[in-house]
Amino acid sequence: MSDLPADLPRLHVLRTWHAMWLARIDEAIAAAEQRQAEARRGAEVRPDPPAFVVQLGIGTGPPVAVHVGDCPVAGSRVRPLDAEQARRALVDVEACSMCRPDTDLGVLG
């Protein structure tokens, strides 16, 4: 014995309803695959982070800290530095206590 209705009109309604859901699911799958492909392409073409960055203050304030280039604490207001620029910046700006760029640069205290 089937749990489906026996009459043809209700069977057509059920088939239409399920076809609509399958179309919605297929659209969601296609969108998820596209997002995944875009993320993969983005990761492939994204440049490597700079070796070091200086975290800038809000507005025209002084720099806040020097970070290793991929430090998650640095935030979005940063300027890239090479190793020599980072060493010079550490004279006036403190080193991030999490990523410790001063250790990487061999700068003591």
Written description of the protein model:
- The structure is a single chain.
- The chain has a four-stranded mixed sheet.
- It has helices spanning 8-45, 83-92, 101-105, and strands at residues 52-55, 65-68, 78-81, 94-95.
- The mean pLDDT is 92.
- The protein is rod-shaped, with a radius of gyration of 28 Å.
- It is α+β, with helices and mostly antiparallel strands.
Assembly form of the protein: single chain
Strand content: 5-15%
Distance between the termini: 82 Å
Number of domains: 2
Task: Tell me the Rg in angstroms.
Answer: 28 Å
In terms of structural class, how would the helical and strand content be classed?
A: alpha+beta
Instruction: Note the total helix count.
Output: 3
Strand order of the largest sheet: 3-1-2-4
* Main sheet properties: 4 strands, mixed
Counting DSSP E segments of at least 2 residues, the number of strands comes to 4
H/E element order: HEEEHEH
Question: Helical proportion?
Answer: 40-55%
What's the overall geometry?
rod-shaped
Poorly predicted ranges? none
Quick overview:
By secondary structure, the protein is an alpha+beta fold. It has helices spanning 8-45, 83-92, 101-105; strands spanning 52-55, 65-68, 78-81, 94-95. Strands 3-1-2-4 form a four-stranded mixed sheet.
List the helices and strands and how they pair.
Elements: H1 8-45, E1 52-55, E2 65-68, E3 78-81, H2 83-92, E4 94-95, H3 101-105
Features:
109 residues, alpha+beta, 2 domains, four-stranded mixed sheet, rod-shaped, DUF6233
